[in-house]
Design the sequence.
């Protein structure tokens, strides 16, 4: 996996974590 792709995935995962913390009631479907 290219480093650039891995970096983008890490950023996306971090944003998802922040979103889940900001919206704890967000359903996971």
Sequence:
């Amino acid at each position: 996996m290219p480093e650039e792709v891995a970096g983008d995935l890490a950023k996306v995962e971090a944003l998802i974590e922040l979103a889940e913390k900001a919206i704890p009631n967000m359903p996971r479907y």
In short: The mean pLDDT is 84. The radius of gyration is 12 Å. The chain is about 70% helix and 0% strand. The longest helix spans residues 3-22.
